[in-house]
Amino acid sequence: MLCLYVCVTRQPYFALLSEFVDSYVLVTTDVPVDRELTRRHQLTLACVDAGRPALTSTVSVDVNVVDIDDHAPQFTQSTYNCSVQENRQPLEVTSHSFYQ
Asked: Is residue 7 part of a domain?
């Protein structure tokens, strides 16, 4: 089947790129994909051949966006305090809670 057009979903994130005859790859467009905004995209890909009558086929594709570490960790407070008893052993739990 020769794919003559690509994603029929009305979303700007992905497109099909023809690699070879009857071979396509899913690529991102110039619109950034951000997992914090959308974790999963649902696409409907449609293909049509050059026959008469033209035959068509569609398939649904779920694209799960994998998070990269693009945001530094953030604390909810600027200062934390805790109490520690003296003479603790190495690797012994010293505090179970922090307070302001």
From this structure: no
